[in-house]
Amino acid sequence: MRQLAFALPVPAPSLQNFVPGRNGELLHRLHRLLDGASTERFVYLWGEPGCGKSHLLAAFSAALSQTGRQVYVLPNDPGIGSGEEADYADCIVVDDVQRLTTAGQALAFRLFNTVRERDGGFVAAGSAPPSRLNLREDLLTRLGWGLCYQVQPLTDEEKAAALKSRARERGFDLPRDVVTYLLVRQRRDMSHLLAVLDGLDRYSLETKRPVTVPLARELLAAIGERS
Amino acid sequence: MKILEIDRDTLLRPLQAVSGIVERRHTLPILSNVLIETEGSQLRLLATDLEIQVATQASLDGAANQQSVTVSARKLQDILRSLPEKTAVTLDLQDSKLALKAGKSRFNLQTLPAQDFPRLSPGPEDGVTSISLPQKQLKSMLQLVQYSMAQQDIRYYLNGLLLVIEKNALLMVATDGHRLAYAESALADGHARSELIVPRKAILELVKLLSDSEAPVEIQLQQNQVRFRFGDIDLVSKVVDGKFPDYTRVIPTNYKKHFKTSRLALLQALQRAAILSNEKFRGVRWVLGSKSLHIVCTNAEQEEAEEVMEIDYAADAMDIGFNITYLLDVLNSLSVEEVDCALGDANSSMLITVPGDRHFKYVVMPMRI
Prior knowledge:
heterodimer, B: ten-stranded antiparallel β-sheet, six-stranded antiparallel β-sheet, 18% helix, 49% strand, elongated
């Protein structure tokens, strides 16, 4: 028997809740871009899975929308007719460029050119630097035109701090021993760790038990059996 | 030095009002005590646990000396309670001991200095929203929602009750993550929007202390605390830090499947079925079919209870589980004739409302059985 719980709102990725680690300069750049203080309008981020690319793109898009500017997030596999509203956007955002389909690449290339003519921005992220991506050449050149940053993964200490602060945003304290347990027993990229935190939050709410090492062990064992 | 001469009941009643919040064990010994102050013909009593403070007063027949002392709230209350009604009691302060005399009984109690007694500082006067409503109205609203508050949840904001003042309405919301209760009622005047989370303990104390009368209670919402003044009682509580979840997202608005039924008939059927529900999980199955509701409980010993109710249900058949305690709680707290149960699917919440009344809503998440 399993009592289900309400889906309590989860804090969205923001530039404030991104633990910068060694990415201070990149974060600074994004803030300047937001303030309109930067002359650079094209940014490309790359790095290993779970290093924070998607968080940064989502946070940047949200922050830009809040300033009243139009943001268009390009899907990897756009359907027919998509991208029309993008012609009026102030900024185009593309995550996981390596997954763009042929149609997606064509649209990304077209949107890059229109947004450039309109003095807008183009912010994208991918798994590797443009030179090592397997995409159409003209798009790769465009991606390489602006600032190119490698997003550095967090150290274990920084990951611990990030997990604790995310838990606090959800309204509870994540004990130190639980953090240590997760870092030792789990895949250590942040997207996985945050998904585990999400699971712990939900499981603790469903069972009305505090988040402890035994609770984490129980949940992870249950997930292990299911998969 | 004599502090006061008083009738047992005149002292016991206000003492019981303030001592409900006194913790049995506390790291700070003085918090087990009650502060007793006399001035003119006024007797003032005050107790606190550093989060909540309750003060009350009573009028004395004659004038008393200006005195203040603190003494164990529980012991004083136990002594007074065990004395016969209407006994005349005198309190004398001798050095650091309080001598209580009544008829042929005599008690010497340890005291702690009144100046050491902690008090919650009165909040800043500006930015205060103040409302007034009949005690009866506040009490019945609290009773409609208080049982849904969480108890010792790691998310502090759930261990309390959200109080919202919006225009001329007072809203209350409580949730433990499994169910949510919402109550609304009209206020005489309009106000700017203001909200805060009142801790669980303060809410439970308020329900005990409020009377079922038309006499007013004044609520002051301050920056970090909330104050309730009614009768001779002045209750101040710190508020819970944190952001209460957006309850409007939890309350469904688009459910099509629903039925109306007698609250009492449903309550009684559930109470009978609950006898054979699993003691740990408290699960109950609802099997909804055309015009019928089967309520099924089974326990670890493979025993089974089944209740069948005729209802006005006409939507698709459905099989859904709930924690039976959550259903009993809401049906017990209501006093109306009929309730309306609205459903989505077996993995979504159920919405319980009162037909023709939009002031109360209860949302409960199902259980997978």
